[in-house]
Amino acid sequence: MQEAHPNLPEFQYIKPKTLAEASEFLAAHGDEARPLLGGTDIFVRLRDGIWKDRYLVDVKGLDGTSNIAFDPSVGLVIGAAVTMNQVATFSAVKEHYPALGEAANQVAGYQLRNRATVVGNICNASPAGDTIGACILLKGSLNVHGTEGTRQEPLETFFKGPGKSALKAGDVVTSLHLPIPQKGTVGKYLKLGRNKASDLSIIGLTVVGFPDADTSSGYRMKLALASVAPIPLVVDEVEQILSDEVITEESIAKAAQAAMDACTPIDDVRASARYRKAMVKNLSQKALTEIWEKLEGKSK
Amino acid sequence: MTDHKITITVNGEIERLRVGSNLTLLKMLREELALTGTKNGCSAGECGACTVMMNGEPVNSCMVLAVECDGAEIVTVEGLADKDALAPVQEAFTHPGAVQCGFCTPGFLISSKALLERNPDPSEEEIREALVGNLCRCTGYTKIVEAVQEAAKMS
Ligand SMILES: Cc1cc2nc3c(=O)[nH]c(=O)nc-3n(C[C@H](O)[C@H](O)[C@H](O)COP(=O)(O)OP(=O)(O)OC[C@H]3O[C@@H](n4cnc5c(N)ncnc54)[C@H](O)[C@@H]3O)c2cc1C
Ligand code: FES
Ligand code: FES
User: Fold this and answer.
1) ipTM above 0.90, yes or no
2) Which of A23, A57, A189, B103 lies at a CB distance of 3.0 to 4.6 Å from A170, suitable for a disulfide?
3) How far is ligand 1, taken at its centre, from the CA of residue A50, in Å?
């Protein structure tokens, strides 16, 4: 039995006043410092002794990190310090980015979602992160402040491996930007976990779809998977099949099979690889069917 | 380790404290302010026994640093009653079976109060959903859900 770890190890809490100060400090302390948002990943890893940071640099409250705003010409900007609950209850998220709202709402329990952030979920770069699939499929990019100024990191190319991303020492993500979705976009997040409160997904499945006159099927549907590969996985074959072929139960079954074939899950404490693969197929079929029905106006 | 000076309102009282960087809100409440109603179940954000209100919203106090609470307003289970008059949620939890060993109760009371503040008339499903982050090893939850339903009727 693993012991509970009531005490956090020693570290120094740093509260910089500006982004420049934060980036400078983080760059100067390389491996020994990391940015802090909700701390819900950080404190667990510090307590377990997996991370040994000497400095936590609180970036909540720095320029551009605190607000969530929707502008019909720009899209959605979610400040780094905006919590899962703030995202899930924001009306423009419910209306225009439902896959993200559903995913944010399925992270842990209510009180943890008052601390956990979407940007923290992304920066943590866990293949299990619930909100990551929606952010990738909705063409999200991060606004990053580094020692050499600001830049944007598209999420499509952001993830490099478990816990590894395109971020460098000195980088502070200030916000996440999601452009205006295609007209008529619908979305769904399905999560399979052992229990709801405190568990990472066994698999997590995001589907986004919209009408598209340029495809043979008249629709474009995209699917991303969590917890089945070293990084969040977008299954391009699903989009291909359901663009090129008329959407029927058969083509959806074929796409679900493609999702299953694309994933490379591992056996771990939460589930076996075989079970994960089988569930990817089942849940893909379920979610794609539901999205198709929504697009056809058969359900709402 | 560097100490930080913080000012924090706990159950309506202003407290000025010097806290180390790694002191959690949970430890500060229990060990510096002797408010032991808030419990330490897992220190990992999983059980909800440490739930308190921070600026009007419930949080896991084991996952918040004391220094992050500078300027914040905290309400613990000790702050729910109005002098001797129990809050409706507390009254309702006296309902037979909702409290058994009682270890989880302070956290459930805070989460339930927060739920009723944002949704005064929750469905059973909404109650269960709001309490997902609070674990109880004794009751099987049915009696707790009933207590919250009763509290909703009382307030
Ligand atoms: C009990 C429990 C249950 C959980 N359940 C789930 C779940 O169901 N689904 C899920 O996906 N996750 C879950 N998690 C994990 C965690 O809550 C999420 O990943 C959360 O979104 C992390 O956000 P945070 O703000 O707490 O990040 P933090 O812990 O503050 O940071 C996470 C990582 O990102 C880095 N970082 C933070 N901010 C920045 C920044 N601005 N710029 C650059 N890097 C930054 C940090 O240095 C750190 O490496 C759970 C955690 C716990 C403790
Ligand atoms: S002690 Fe904080 S959630 Fe268990
Ligand atoms: S009453 Fe014993 S843990 Fe809930």
Assistant:
1) yes
2) A23
3) 15
